[in-house]
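Recap from last week: sequence in, structure out.
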Amino acid sequence: MTTVADILKSKPDPTVYTIDPATSVFEAVQLMAQKNIGALVVVEHGQVVGMVSERDYARKIALMARTSRDTPLRDIMTSPVMYVRPQQTSEQCMALMTENRLRHLPVMEDGRLIGLISIGDLVKDIISEQQFIIEQLEHYISGQRG
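Predicted structure tokens:
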């Protein structure tokens, strides 16, 4: 069974992009576009205080007639933040994401932010696991016929 720690190790870029809650939404969206990511972890004084995503921008800025340059992240971020620990399984993460309609989960260990997993990371892991099982079954079947 794959754990969050395994998924973090397999990520090509383990960087977690963080941002201060006083930063403007415009700057956050700019950073997300620049880094080609869909969410940022909002950190204040070393503590995770929220998450902000493209979805937050669409629903809380664009649809509410706010301006992204004048709105601080603290006004639109999702808080409190749901998170996972390194020893949790990909299945537990998928259930948490599905139940709470989340696309990103910070990974915390001893109160520290150590990573971020996305729904894409989980899907990639599940596909990889299924591919491995298929290959094992193909070897088993072809071995039985030989």
